[in-house]
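Module 6 notes. Inverse folding takes a fixed backbone as the condition and produces residue identities as the prediction. Think of it as a translation problem where the source language is geometry and the target language is the twenty amino acids. Below is one complete input and output pair. Work through it position by position during the lab.
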């Protein structure tokens, strides 16, 4: 039998999971592109900022969409 969790616990776990996943992906991509200089980067510093902010907004609003 699986343990029962309330909706707040599920949303908090999803929030932490998506935040960690987005940081891992962004660090992996930005490490390969920003080691030499920001000029050779695919998105540039501002592009990674936009991606990070959009992922943060998704992580914040996603638990609101999954409520039962």
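Target side of the pair, the amino acids:
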């Amino acid at each position: 039998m699986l343990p029962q969790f309330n909706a707040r616990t599920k949303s908090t776990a999803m929030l932490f999971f998506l935040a960690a996943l987005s940081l891992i992906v962004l660090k992996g991509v930005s490490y390969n592109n920003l080691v030499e200089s920001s000029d050779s980067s695919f998105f540039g510093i501002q592009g990674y900022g936009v991606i990070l902010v959009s992922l943060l907004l998704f992580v914040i609003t996603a638990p609101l969409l999954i409520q039962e």
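Reference fact for the lab report: The CA atoms of residues 32 and 41 lie 8 Å apart.
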